[in-house]
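Re-run with default settings, no changes from the original entry. Doing this only to confirm the output is reproducible before filing.
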Amino acid sequence: MAEGAERSSQRRGGGGFSLIEVIVVIAIVSLMIGAIAPLTLQQLTQKRMESTRAQLKKLVTAMAGRPESGDFGYVGDMGSLPPTLADVNSAAGKPPYVIDPGDRVGYGYAGPYAYDVPLAPGGQFVDAWNVPLRYVGGAAQLTSAGPDRAFGSADDLVYPASLAPVSGNLIVRMLGVPTSGDPAAALAASEARVWVSWSQNGTRQETQLTPPVGGTGPWFLNGLHTGHHGVRAQGAGSYLGASPVRDVVRVGRGTTLLTLTLVQP
């Protein structure tokens, strides 16, 4: 009888688990891991996708700004999208930002524009899977290869979904106040000249606006880069000698209208 009790005690390992109990516990733990692992991987992938989308948005905003809120990013200062994505944070070979006293508008590089987006050790912007982002110069759009790390597949992340324009049109309406005391009226093409300043690779340029078609109507310029622009006008013809006028206009996507007034001398 004592011998049987001793054998029973040995089988239970002095209060431990039996082999069958250990196998059952291992099986349960394995099932739990098998159920949790896919969920954990899915959550990790989702977090990486969210992080990458936020990164894409920040970089596109750094390039093209938010024109609706008066932020024009790299385009507004330099006049065009960056040649490479790394250029948004690189001042190399670019003129420094300077405000023109006549226009009261700045031209030149004022970056870094994506100061809160870190570069990878290789000097590139990469997604959450450590794959360099794809950028085609001249288009304000970025692509991540996504979870499968291969471009051109269904899980690519693209921002924005459609190309964001970085140019707009400017229309300037010229009015004249005659010496006769009559109300201000629209000037004819022969009575005014209008110029607008813009940035070409960070250097100030100036272009004369197209005069009204048919002799009357607004002056216009299409395809002007988004951003702040200096506009000046001077009199001609019967308004020759009128005091020149200047203004700063914010050109966004679409068409922007500005009205200037000359006083007949």
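Residues 167-263 form a domain with the Immunoglobulin-like fold (CATH 2.60.40.10). The chain has three helices and 13 strands.
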